[in-house]
Amino acid sequence: MWLQKLITLGAKQRGFHLVTHEIVSQLPELKSLKVGLLHVFIQHTSASLTINENADPDVRLDMEMAANRLVPESWPYVHTTEGRDDMPAHIKGSLMGFSLSIPIRDNRLALGTWQGIYLCEHRNDGGPRRLVLTLHGSETASD
Fold first, then answer.
1. For residue 38, what are the domain limits?
2. Looking at the domain assignment, is residue 45 inside a domain?
3. I want to staple 135 with a disulfide (CB 3.0 to 4.6 A). Which of 3, 46, 85, 110 is the partner?
């Protein structure tokens, strides 16, 4: 089975946001797959996706602080027409990445116990974010 959906996540403040549940809730077809793959792609260049700790919210704060330290807004960027936070957001997006591939096993995402999908919002006012979800799999397991 192949399935592709375009979903929109509501606007979020700048930071790292756990969105695993938002994504899974829009994929009821996931429950029919014994084995497969979910590919998640964000259609933006100033936000990104990553997988990390899903239990302690302090991790999300630390990730934001580290990203800001690695890519400061205070550099003399040339591309500034869209605001001071725009070019650093593009760089952070490229460093974090714009897509994820997650295995499906026994009708669910095969994430580790403490793993979750993050939307990394790198703009102060990024707005809603569009994700393309591509689901591929089989209702029977292949050994």
1. 2-137
2. yes
3. 3
